[in-house]
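Q: Hi! First time doing this. I have a protein sequence and I read that you can turn it into a structure. Is that right? Here it is:
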Amino acid sequence: MTAGTATQNIHDYLAEFDDIPGTRVFTAARARKGYWLNQFAMSLMKPENRERWKADERKYLDDWPMSAEQKDAILARDYNKCLDLGGNVYFLAKVFSCDGLSFAEAVSTMTDMTFPEYRDMMLKGGRTPEGNRSIKGGY
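A: Yes, that's right. Below is the predicted 3D structure, encoded as structure tokens:
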């Protein structure tokens, strides 16, 4: 069966996304897993919440029914882990904005590149698809 055909099991189809290197597709399952993580991040849109967050990050996080692993990932600014735990990068942008980081600077922390290396790579058209299409297939 080919991906996305009407006869393919939806779970098998969605599982294929896990084979894309460096990519986490924000599925309904991921959204459910990260609901409170994303609600926390969106709370930082309000100035009074940003002030509370900046005053005591741990205390502010403890007001949210997130897993300990999610809280630790936020405190460590481990955005890849946050994505694995259901975070949405556009919601997480509220966190790195509080840290004074641009979107590109924050995203560069999710790679093995420095920000200047990441910026230069993106200015040259992004990463090559060679070696970045399939984890299992190695291409």
